[in-house]
Design a protein that fits this description.
0% helix; mainly beta; 67 residues; 5-stranded antiparallel β-sheet
Length: 67
């Protein structure tokens, strides 16, 4: 099992601009990991299913598809 401590988390401020293209990302919000994407119109990270904006994104990691 992979746990959050084995994921290569990066501070959200260090994210390259090309990641804000609408792709789904692994994000750290508050006290847990969530899947989200950048909404360029609302200028924030959103839940791609519920469409609400996350408030406390502090870290990010790329989602890697299964090999």
């Amino acid at each position: 099992m992979i746990t959050a401590k084995y994921i290569p988390w990066e501070p959200i401020g260090a994210m390259p601009g090309d990641r804000k293209d609408g792709r789904r990302m692994l994000l750290w919000e508050g006290d847990g990991a969530v899947i989200g994407r950048w909404d360029g119109e609302r200028k924030g990270w959103e839940d791609p299913e519920g469409m609400h904006l996350f408030q406390e994104i502090t870290y990010w990691a790329d989602l890697t598809p299964p090999a």
